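pinned: reference chain
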Amino acid sequence: MGFKEDIGRRIERKRAEIAELEAQVGTARTYLQALEDMYKLASRDAQGGGVSASTDSPRATPSFRAGSMTGQAYDALRAAGKAMHVNDLLPAIGRTVNRQERSAISGTLAAYVRKGDVFTRPAPNTFGLVEFGEQPGKQLEIQPLPADFGSL
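pinned: its structure tokens
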């Protein structure tokens, strides 16, 4: 093994390390976006101006920050007219389907589900809109597990 080959291997290892770090930065940015969305939601709620589709006015259209993941999810669900699994919802809003993106959108929408505002969760990892009038376990058929289920 010569000096040149040793340097070549070190270069390749460093490139692989950089690629891994860039992937971690992308994941961190996605997570940060979800946290910022939840923070802004909490700030509006504390001021009494929260996003709400209350039962008093079921036709009230919620307003979200322009371009936010939550707003995009709302628009995609309205366009579809039915609840969607996160693996279908992510491509509909222009995001890639991976663990970090699924976690980010699930966490963000789950905050609304817990409050009973705007979004519902009729099945695991499936989100709909309150205006659809969905009830858990209804209107959705059980889908077979994807071929890559359980793999990273």
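why pinned: Confidence is low (pLDDT under 50) at residues 49-59, 136-140. The first strand starts at residue 84 and ends at 85.
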